[in-house]
Amino acid sequence: MGLKGLACLLVLLVLASAPWWAAQQPFLLHMLVTACVLVVPAVGLNLMLGHGGLVSLGHMGFAGIGAYVAAVLMVDARWSFAPSVLAAMLAAGAAGGLISLLCFRFRGHFFMIVTLAFGLMLHAVMNNWDSVTRGAAGFAGIPRPSPLRWGDQVWSFGPLPNFYALALGMAVLAFALQYLVVHSNFGRSLAAIRQDERLARSRGVNTLLYKTTVFAMGTALAGMGGVLQVSFLRVAAPASFTMLESINMVLIVIIGGAGSLVGPALGALLYVGLPEMLRLSNEWRLVIFGVMLVLITLFAPKGLAGLCARAWQWLIPRKTTAVAKP
Amino acid sequence: MNHLRIQSLGKRYGGVVALDGVSLDIEGAGIYGLIGPNGAGKTTLFDCLAGTTEPDQGRVWLNGQEVTAWPAHRMAHLGVARTFQECRILPEETCLDNVLFAAQPQGLLANLAQIWTRRAGHRLAALDEAMRLLHLVRLQDHAHVPAAELSFGQRRLLEIVSTFMAQPDVLLLDEPASGVNPSLLQVLGDFVKTMMAERPRIMLLVEHNMAFVMDMAQDIIVMHQGQLLERGSPAQVQASAKVVEAYLG
Amino acid sequence: MTQALLEQVINGLMMGSVYVLVALGLVLIYGVMHVVNFAHGVLFTLGGYLGHFFFTQWWDSFWMATLLSMLSVGLVGYALERGVFHPLHGNLRNQVIASLGLILAFENAVIALWGPNALQWKVATTEQLVSVGELRFSVHHLGIIVLTMAMITALGLFLKHTRFGTAIRATSQNQEAALVVGIPVRRVQWSAFALGSALAALGGCLVGPLFLVFPQMGDVPLVKGLAGILLGGMGSVPGAVVGGLILGVTESVSTLFLPTDYRDAIAFMVMVGILLLRPQGLWGQRVRGED
Question: Is residue C186 included in any domain, yes or no?
Answer without folding.
Answer: yes
